[in-house]
Amino acid sequence: MNGSGGKAESVRVGVGIHDKSYARPIPTEQVIAEPRNLPRKSTQSKLHALATKAISTWHRKVQRVPHVNAKDHSGRRPLAIHRFGMGTSGRNDVAREYYFTLLELGVRMPRIDQITTFILGLCFGIAALADAPGFPPVELNIAHINDHHSNLSAIKDFELRIDGIPTRVEVGGMARTTARLHALDGTPNLIKLHAGDATTGTLFHTLFKGEADAALMKTICFDAMSLGNHEFDDGDAGLRRFLDALRLGGCHTPVISANVEPATGTPLAPLHQHDYLQPYIVKWIGGVPVGIIGIVVRGKTQDSSRPLASTRFLGETETAQRYIDELKQSGVRHIVLLTHHGYDADLAMSARLSDVDVIIGGDSHTLLGDFTAYGLASAGPYPTQARNKDGEVVCIGQAWEYNKIVGLMNVRFDTHGRVTQCAGKPTLQIGDGFSHVGADGNPIPVDAAARQAKLAWLATREDIKVVQPDPIAEAEINRYASQMDKLAQRIIGNASEALCLVRIPGEEGGRGSGVAGCEQANSKAQGSDIAQVVADAFLAGSKRADFSLQNAGGARISLPAGPISFETADKVLPFSNVLIEIPVTGMQLIATLEEGVANHLDQAGSSGSHPYMSGVRWDLDLSRPRGQRFGNIQIRDRKAGLWSPIEPNRKYILVTNDYLASGKEGYSTLGAIYASGNYINTYLLYTQTFVDYVQAKGTVVRPSASEYSHQRVVTRAGKSL
Q1: Which of 561-575, 626-640, 697-711 is predicted with the least confidence, judged by mean pLDDT?
Q2: What distance lies between CA 470 and its chain's CA centroid?
Q3: DSSP state, 720?
Q4: C-alpha–C-alpha distance, residues 424 and 653, integer Å
Q5: Secondary structure class of 119 (helix, strand, coil)
Q6: Alpha carbon distance 603, 617 (integer Å)
Q7: C-alpha distances in angstroms, 15 versus 53, 108, 715?
Q8: Predicted TM-score (pTM) of this structure
Q9: For 63, how many CA atoms within 13 A lie in the half-sphere containing its CB?
Q10: pLDDT the model gives residue 137
């Protein structure tokens, strides 16, 4: 809109503006935009005319308005930029509003320090660059989520304490997030932010590769989104597919990531570095420009995801300061960082930065706020108040995970642009159905009276709300869910021979019996083909790990020879487990292997705990006592492919599913490391990892004999296999 609140006019500007294909330049003439609707008063300052002249000089100096990579408010990719002017109640600096409105639309303007001091003074005013009062006091409200990880459907049977009673409820779901954020639409000076990791984690991503996530995000229409590391799980080309889907239609969500620099000519920068990613945007909020800078975790993205080697990831803190300084030089004093590198990293970074005011974060899936009444432990207050390098207050927030919570932060600034108050509250969003767990462990719906009592208690709370799903968003989720059955039949690869299910080599009876080619599988030392292949898939899915671990019971069926579909893969790995990367020493790995066997031999636990690994092989004697069963343990070097004896004191990286990493099935050594927090959750759905492996292979074959984890086996009865 222009300064008078009237309908904005448009002019064509710049060279190299692109049409909807984002590939073909459209030649456009150089046109100098000038303010319109200037007040016809004798008090009209000469500054306005000088600023207009300065803008013209500026445009002639740089020869073109830089590349536009945004859609206007109509949803179209702009071949035009609005003209901005003043009405009778307009602002005092047309040029300054012009400049920042271009930034809000996603236009990368030249750095201010590249312009002469004369033009700088005319355009932005001395007061905006000095520390003297130069802004109206403003209240900023930030609604935010992070790390929804393709969790579009609600999570069922989630246990909370409601009015002191353990209760199963439905939590989250993108349709509830949409409803909650729409309910906030009347909030003054509201911006809606997503702090990254929208994708990867459920079959919605496995089957639709970001399309479903983009469709649901557009029912909200975020003001900005930062990239998360998992946005690169399908490479730069996969990220571009998601961003293209996010751009379709009338909603434009700028995607900002200041420390990501794709190489020109690659999927994210087909013609210009900022074709898809901007370092920041500027929003006009309450009469002041607010800069929002995106930052993504560098190391984890490079090490655990799959960006192109040519895509550069810059240091988080240095890059944030660089663009804070650039915005400050442009007259922006109110700075929000939209980060995806973890709560602890946000706290540490805030102390090393000057002029940062707010950090809205993601990546660590951190719950902030006091939710002890519901049986939930949090990592700190919401918002968390820290101090920046200048000693000024920084407001830090994060909104847990999986659409369970919507954060709403309230920040007040003084006339210097400094934070005077951090407030707000995250809201846990649930459904209106409740159940208690019966003696058999199954949920039993509460009666009508108990339901009303719970609803009455919840109505008194501010940090938990019963939220009815938005019907439009719910319809979108149902539309994609209805396609799953059909897509599940899609063939993703082939098995050249049967991959047989065995839990323990030499076990009586064959779990794979009935599948052609598996009749004698239980009599072989190698044990389970399918558990071994799943372990191979886990290792292929982790760039950091030295080896992988899968328990025998985690693979649920034998795979017959022939076509493999999504549905078949889901039957092999039907749970919602994700992959965890966890550091272990050689001694800890030996203890882990012994625990997996002792669980079923010595502790009457399930035989499903029996270990299979990729990148590790051994001899196993089940007739010996605990601590002496594993021998000749060797590790394969991932790069050289050579086997060598395990080194007890060496540190390795193990990738496994979160079920085992957390200490289940007797794996107490891993559980202790996990409990200490010394691990990385990749949030890669283990089924998706298996699907990716099958698709990459095309045809899956049994590993060669030397690659199986079990090399020689002596059964509990003393029989050699």
Answers
A1: 561-575
A2: 23
A3: B
A4: 40
A5: helix
A6: 24
A7: 21, 14, 75
A8: 0.74
A9: 1
A10: 94
DSSP assignment of 441-455: S-EEE--HHHHHHHH
**Cα angle, residue 63 at apex, residues 61 and 67 outer, rounded to 5°:** 125
pLDDT digits (tens, 9 = 90+) for 303-355: 878 899 999 999 999 999 999 999 999 999 999 999 999 999 999 999 999 99
Look at the domain 138-412+422-485 and name its fold. Purple Acid Phosphatase; chain A, domain 2 (3.60.21)
DSSP single-letter state for residue 534: H
How many other CB atoms are found less than 10 A from the CB of residue 421? 14
Nearest to 710, CA basis, from 643, 618, 609: 618
Instruction: Write down the pLDDT at residue 305.
Output: 86
Provide the pLDDT confidence category of residue 576 given band limits of 50, 70 and 90.
confident
Q: pLDDT band for 53, please (50, 70, 90 cuts).
A: very low
Q: Does residue 193 have a pLDDT over 60?
A: yes
Number of residues assigned to the chain: 721
Contact 636, 555 (CB under 8 A): no
Helix locations, 248-334, DSSP H: 298-304, 316-329
**CATH code 3.90.780.10 region(s) in the chain:** 490-714
* CA 41 from centroid of its chain's CA atoms: 52
Whether 147 and 365 have beta carbons less than 8 Å apart is answered as yes
Q: How far apart are the first and last CA of the chain?
A: 78
Question: No. of H helices and E strands in the chain?
Answer: 19, 35
Q: Which amino acid is at 657?
A: N
To the nearest 10 degrees (0 to 180), the angle between helices 316-329 and 343-352 is 50
Q: What is the C-alpha to C-alpha distance for residues 363 and 305, in angstroms, rounded to an integer?
A: 13
- Token code pair at residue 341: 């590198």
> How far is Cα 593 from Cα 549, in angstroms, rounded to an integer?
9
Ramachandran category for residue 77: left, alpha or beta (phi over 0 → left; psi -120 to 50 → alpha):
beta
- Name residue, tokens 């044990």: 527
604 contact partners, CB below 8 Å, separation of at least 6:
none
CA–CA separation, 718 and 721 (whole Å): 10
Amino acid 81: pLDDT: 26
Angle, CA of 557, 199 and 172, to the nearest 5°: 90
Range in 124-128, 512-516, 692-696 the model is least confident about: 124-128
> From residue 616, how far is each of 73, 278, 529, 540, 674 by CA, in Å?
56, 44, 15, 14, 21
What's the rounded mean pLDDT across residues 561-574? 92
Residue 205 sits at the vertex; the CA angle it makes with 199 and 206, to the nearest 5 degrees, is: 135
- pLDDT on residue 222: 98
Q: Which residues pair with 261 in a beta bridge?
A: 312
Query: Is the confidence at residue 391, as pLDDT, over 80?
Result: yes
Please say whether the beta carbons of 466 and 160 come within 8 A: no
Q: How confident is the model at residue 100 (pLDDT cuts 50, 70, 90)?
A: low
Where in the chain do CATH 3.60.21.10 domains reside?
138-412+422-485
Q: Are 200 and 683 in contact (CB under 8 A)?
A: yes
Q: Which of 94-98, 224-228, 459-463 is least confident? A: 94-98
Give the whole-angstrom CA distance, residue 332 versus residue 288.
8
Helix, strand, coil % over all residues of the chain, rounded to 5: 30, 25, 45
CATH code linked to domain 490-714: 3.90.780.10
Residue with tokens 């009444």: 373
Which residue type sits at 120? L
